[in-house]
Structure formats: structure tokens, C-alpha cells
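Appendix C reproduces, verbatim, an entry submitted by the partner laboratory led by Prof. M.T., so that reviewers can inspect both the input and the predicted structure.
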Amino acid sequence: MSNTNLLSLKDIGKTFSNGTVALQGMSMDIEQGSFVSLLGPSGCGKSTALKIIAGLGNLTTGSLKWPDTRVDHLGRPDHEISFVFQEPTLMQWATVFENVWLPLRLKGTSRKAATAQVSEALGMVGLADFATSYPRELSGGMKMRVSIARALITRPKLLLMDEPFAALDEITRFKLNNDLLELWQKFNWTVIFVTHSVFESAYLSNRIVVMAARPGRVVADIAVTSPYPRRGDDHRSSPEYNETCREASEALHAAMKAGDHM
């Protein structure tokens, strides 16, 4: 992990047209190469913050800055940002190959020219043999792997993930957690990962940002010092992991109380 900030949020506020204040005074710096989890109760603005970072929504107040990164005339960074949603959002009528090819296709890259990159992305997520399959033929975990491969095809510097494993069974979720960490370490992305799970945030992250609701804001910022690689059940049974879970759980409960008192 670098000591250089990839982006900085300063006093971000977001008020929707119906008057709902989703975020207020939200500030945080995201270092290059970090794995940051946004942890908080439903309605605390985690997904809203992620969409603002992705350029999928406008902020009402505050500023979003990209130090050391060129931006276009709209203030958007000139490097790729990829977004993995909670649902795989695959095209049901298209093959796995065609779903992963989509971001390159939208840029004008032909199927032939994209073949090597699509094959590489599918290999990264363990789906090299499923290029001609359709989403209806895949399990939930496999569909999410396709969604991740599609996000990786552009080789992003920043990967935004909005509760991507929430709907999966525990065994599949643990496996994808491990696979995601391997890919993150290999390609040195910066990851911002939204989750409701204390246990998932403690396992994946080197930093947990806890948010409270009404309005959404940062109430705790926890450094996770356990070294990588983290070895599945061995790490989950370690004193370091359990201490991180305890600290994050206490911060989450405090955040929920803070929201109730607003």
C-alpha cells in the first residue's frame, strides 16, 4: 500500500430532491493500493457515497478530489473505475464471453481484438471453461464471478464493490473473499467495499470506515493491522482477527445508537 492518496472526500453532503439528507460532512482519504470497507447499518449512505465516487451521482456540498490524477472537463478521473453491484446485472441473452466483453465493446473493441483480454479476465476468476455458457446455466457465485471479470477487463485502478457477496451462501462467500484478496494483491488495485458484515470487513480490509445514518457520516476509522495473505479459517480463528471483529462490532453498535439519536 502506498502513502499517496488516490482520492479525498471533504465534507461531502448529499440531499435528494425529496429533502432526504443521505450524507452530511463525510470526509475520508483513500490511499492508493488500500482495501477499505465501508461498514454501517442500512440507510447510512454507503451506496450513495460509492455512487458519488463512481460519478453516478452528484454531491450537494463538499468536494471530491483526485490528487496526482488528471481529470476531464467534468472533474472525472481519466483512469478506469469499475463498479461491482450487489446483483450481477448480467445480460441474460448473452454468453459469459459477451457479458465480459461488454465494457470493451462499448469502447469500440471488436470481438476478435478483445478475445485475449476476455479470456484472461475469465481465467482470473476461475471461469475459463465457461465462456460459451449463459447466465441461466450458472450458480449465484459463478454469476458474481462473471460480474467481477467484467469489472476487471478494463484493468481499473479503483474497484468499487457494493455488497457483492451479500446474497450468497456462506461457503461461496468465503471462497470469493479469498479469491478477491488474491486478485487485489496481484494487481495492486485500490478497493472500496461496502458491506453490512463486521466479519467480512475484518477479513478483507486493511481499514474499516464505520458510518452512522441520518445523516450518513463517518464515526470511526479502524486500521486493520493483520498481515496479508490471510489464510481462510486459520486467520478467522486468530486472536488478531477476533480483536478486529470486536472493535468493529463495538463501533457499529455505537454508530447505530448515534443514528437513533439524530
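The chain has two domains: 5-79+157-260, 89-155. Additional entries are available on request from the coordinating office.
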